[in-house]
Amino acid sequence: MQQIDKIIFGDNQFFGINHMSQEKAQQLAEKFYDIKNIYRIYDNVIESGVKGIMLNSNDRAKDICNHFREHKEKYQNISWYPSIPYPHKYANLVAEKGILPAINEVLFKDNSASGVLGMMAKGGMAVLSKDAIKMMQMLIDVEMKMFKGLNVKVVFLQNVITDLILGYDVKEVFIEYCKHIRKKYNALPGLITQNMPLMKAKLEEWGVEEVVLCSSFNKIGYLMSPGVEEYVEAAKTNDPSKYQLMAMSTLASGAIPAKEAYEFINKQNIQSVVFGASSKGHIEETVNLIQI
Amino acid sequence: MQKIKLAIIGAGRMGITHYSIINSHPDIEIESVADPSTLVLTMMKKYLPVKTFKDYNELFDQTTPDAILVCTPPNLNFAIIKRAAKKGIHVFVEKPFTTKKQEAAELNQLYKEKQLINQVGYVLRYNDCFVKSKQLIEDGIIGKIVRFKSEKFSCTITSGDDSSGWRATRENGGGAVFEMASHAIDLVNYLIGKPDKVVGTTLNQIYSKNVEDAVSSTFLYNDGKSGTIDINWSDTSYRKPASKVEVFGTGGKLIVNEHSIKIFLNEVNPAENLQKGWNTLYITDVFKNVPFYVRGNEFTRQLYDFADTISGKKEKSLCTLEDGVNTLEVIEAMFNDYEKNGKL
Fold first, then answer.
1. Ordered DSSP codes for A218-237
2. Is the ipTM of this complex over 0.85?
3. Cβ-nearest to B284 among A16, A169, A253
4. Neighbouring-strand partners of residue A170
5. pLDDT number for residue B238
């Protein structure tokens, strides 16, 4: 399995996401309303030696992708770690219209997604609704369009979707997801999950290997079901040639001081850390603290 | 112990989420699903070990589950739950339970008589920060409650496209009052108590044609307390739904949302390790992990509460049909107040 970057820069801070404080989230949303401030942070990140970027496929991500494509020479060695989909887009659409019309709108309102024209000719949703796998592939392709032309290393499925399907315990969906990401994007399949020990155990049971698992990993166990001990144990016994583990929420939304947080992380058997920061100082500090 | 055989009626957004969560509970075996959607049934039949029915009546005719999750549009719930009660089936129903308080009261009575487990899906009662706030308020840390504000904002409805779905009319349970304000009202009932009178109700349409998108109201209490609610589901400044309750008491103030609790105290409180003046408890200070996470600890905790009450591990669920009736009584009082006093 191709090795993933040890340090990856995440994007929550840019999009008004903070799991601990809505106020903090709002302050950041204001700071990064001007997209130039986002690009400035990315330049700081790259100067600090980080070469991996994780980006969720929301509307603003399109502009970010364009910026990196337009300045290809400047950003030559960057690897991309997209996460799909943008869950709130679907949540709002589904709340407003219902599940089927929402999928219909996403897939068929925008005819440029690959396979859409052919599918429309065959009868659109009516035909598609009998083929869950094809529908999933088309939804992935719609989300992945904005990353075209960038060097994509891993494609992550967002935790809301991963964990929903994990609860259903349907292996076919995971198998087909992984297949599609490998074949169509020549990338590693990734799963973001808030239930890492269970997800890993299931993948092992199903014989699905060479997958990147991204999960919260922090010493207080925040967003780590069923608990921090199970995570530490799952990591300790993991074979990284089968599953590469990536830690997110390492500071537990700021509840743990950075030094203390990474003292814990550096002791774990994990292959990668994704972190977010909104200033040059914090970026440099974090990059220095991560010693995995 | 034999597993609890469960049926899910209504596999829309909530039904689909609940399936995933409760499927992880070791005492539960999901046996059947009823939903009119061919797509949903086709997929479930293909990938899941469940019986599927297009009509819930067929499900009741052909199977006898121990418990059901009712996730259908609220105007259908009365008939479904009445039939379930007759068959002796425990029920979890999504909020707002029904659209008419008389129907809700009748169902509550039936479930009481039959001594069956019953629960309504006011999920915020299970959120770590609201759970902690309930305890702090009950312990009297902010003294006697005088005033409060309960708010909920989201960007759920942001275009004028007239949806033909069940959400388009109030009779079917659509509108910001049934869908969103019900949460804010239930939190008031839960944290402060049910109001004795409702005044000053206003409703606004922003994008919807037949139902309200924003609502506010004032709640009065016989003991002199009062408070307001303010709800808007077309507020595009919110990335995701946000609830907030502010409670002012004789000993200080408590402001809680899904992620934090801010507490101002007139005096130090050593028992809770809170200082005089401002204190902040973040979700990271008060959370408790759940065994399986899909979309927030509260959603798991809510359904595990239902399962554990059925199996006798818990005495009573945190949000019963009775609580659902109480919220509907407040909602009805608000609509009546608006019709009588809210228009110029």
1. -TT-TT-SS-HHHHHHHHHT
2. yes
3. A253
4. none
5. 85
Maximum pairwise Cα distance, chain A:
58
pLDDT tens sequence across B213-225: 999 999 999 999 9
The nearest CA of chain A is from the CA of B290 a distance in Å of 6
Digit-coded pLDDT (tens) for B24-46: 999 999 999 999 988 889 889 99
Q: Using the beta-carbon criterion (under 8 Å), do B12 and A99 form an inter-chain contact?
A: yes
Listed in sequence order, the DSSP H helices in chain B are 13-22, 38-47, 56-62, 77-86, 101-114, 128-138, 176, 182-191, 283-286, 297-310, 321-341
**Which pLDDT tens digit goes with each residue over B285-311?**
999 999 999 999 999 999 999 999 999
Question: Which positions in chain A touch B175 (Cβ < 8 Å)?
Answer: none
Among left, alpha and beta (phi > 0; psi -120 to 50; other), residue A16 is left
Chain B window 164-183: which residues touch A at a Cβ cutoff of 8 Å? 165, 167
Strand-strand pairing, A7-9 and A52-56 = parallel
Which pTM was predicted?
Answer: 0.93
> What percent of chain A has pLDDT above 90?
72
Minimal CA–CA distance to A189: which of A236, A140, A233, A142?
A140
Q: How far is A125 from chain B (nearest CA, A)?
A: 9
| Tokens 């010693």, residue located | A291
**3-state secondary structure (DSSP) of residue A125:** helix
Put simply, whether B159 touches A (Cβ < 8 Å) is yes
In angstroms, rounded to a whole number, what is the distance separating the alpha carbons of residues A253 and A114?
Answer: 38
Cα B16–Cα B17–Cα B20 angle in degrees, nearest 5: 90
The candidate with the shortest Cα–Cα distance to B239, out of A14, A36, A84, is A14
Q: What is the pLDDT of residue B165?
A: 67
In B233-272, the residues whose Cβ lies within 8 Å of chain A are: 239-240, 242, 257, 259-260
Backbone angles phi, psi at B304, to 5 degrees: -65, -35
Interchain contact A28–B (C-beta under 8 A): no
**Range with the poorest average pLDDT among A15-24, A54-63, B198-207, B332-341:** A15-24
| Spans of chain B, pLDDT less than 70 | 161-166
Contact B16 A253 (CB under 8 A): no
